[in-house]
Design a protein that fits this description.
This protein has about 300 residues and is α/β, with parallel strands linked by helices. The chain is built from 12 helices and 6 strands. Strands 3-2-1-4-5-6 form a 6-stranded mixed sheet, with helices on both faces. It is elongated, with a radius of gyration of 22 Å. Pfam families: DUF5753 (PF19054), HTH_31 (PF13560). InterPro entries: Cro/C1-type_HTH, DUF5753, Lambda_DNA-bd_dom_sf.
Length: about 300
Amino acid sequence: MTSNVGPTVRRRRLGQELRRLRQEKGMTAEEVAEELMVSQSKISRLENGRRSISQRDVRDLCRTYKVEDKALVDSLMQMAKESRQQGWWNAFGDVPYSVYIGFETDAASLRVYEPQVLPGLLQTPEYAEAVISGALPEAPQDQIAQRVQVRLRRQERITDPLAPLRLWAVVDEAAMRRVVGNSKIMSDQLDYLVRMSHEPHVTVQALPFDMGSHPGMSGQFTILEFSDESDTSVVYLEGVTSDLYLEKLSDVQSYSMMYEHLRAQALNADQSRQFITEMAQEHARRHQEESEAAPAD
């Protein structure tokens, strides 16, 4: 039941197993909460893997469900112990989207649609700093620097020589035209995007304005998939104050269908590289014009 995964996915697996045991016992979350004298929300959070699970929690739940298989109980207790280990992101302090990072760290592949900014896993340090500064105008510089470092650390999954993350990104033209930082930053960023698109495990597709309306007009989303069949896919929707994780099969299927339509409407990989290169050249020309127009010291 255990494997070499991080604490976020381990909590999720443990929660799924506890839900299975409850359902086999024919109990509702309300009934379990009442018997253990805890809130129903705690039982729900334990089962969806959003809350750290202690060995005491596992012991109490197994007693409630009258689990007699000692090997199963021991396995669940070990999972609870391992699920409380810290991920690499904890070294950076309080990271607000740590649940997502945990999923991303253990994912085998990501399908990303970005309508406003370029994908975080494919950002240059300069672009990342400009994006974060713009999104958090009142944040102190040390907080911005911390978030940039976390983003760069996340990118190591792309270059992992043993198990690189499979990344497929559909990017709207708006994200390429929006001047984040300055024209030089944009030119360098788009050149970098083209270079990364040549990696065998990275696919980038551009979605030009003239493609018209499309299924992604409701906003950004990410579909995370895992190598273990027991770990169902997750759809991640980023919010301002909270994020949303969709795990129901019907939700995942709906977003997967949306993504297939997006891929079909977007330019293919070679056309996208040409399109992005032209965008980079436009930003480079603008930077040259701005430099020439700047007054001499």
